[in-house]
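PROTEIN DATA CARD
Card holder: Nuclear transport factor 2 family protein
Chain length: 180
Origin: Marinifilum caeruleilacunae
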Amino acid sequence: MKMKAHMKQIVVAVFALMLSVSAYAKKENSKETFNGKTLVELSDERRTKPLADHNGDEHLLLFLEREIMRLFEEGNLDKAFTYLTENAMVNPPGVEAIFGRENQKMMFKELLTMEGFELSWEPIQAHVGEGAKMGYVYGLVRWKMPNEKVKLGKYISIYVKKDGKWLNEVEMRNIIAEEK
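Structure generated from the sequence above:
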């Protein structure tokens, strides 16, 4: 029985790695830049732990970050928000925290309807704690509000594992720089 669980972890790790590498390669061709560099290029400059050194759950968290962004790009917020806990919290820069999956969904639906709004992110690294019940991903986020300059920020997503599924519990963002 223990061998089956171990094999399942290996299969998940390999699958997540393949998807992560695939998403990474696809994202590398992104035209979204900040002062002439893509988020992938900027992320590579900040990466201290090689992708190959991440374990299966860490690769899964990196994949989830990219999957959620893909769903945002498609406008599929209903599916994207299934990866959040019911009481998830997001802490955008300059405003109060938004509590609850449904409140976040309403906020992002409104933002995505605004002409000139842009949002993208690229995870840099992931870490899963002992016992694989909690983990985090940090990375870079790029956004633009209508009639404003593009901003580059850092973010951290804190995940918890509930019923075998990783869910985002807390998201924190801040501004590093504004495009020149």
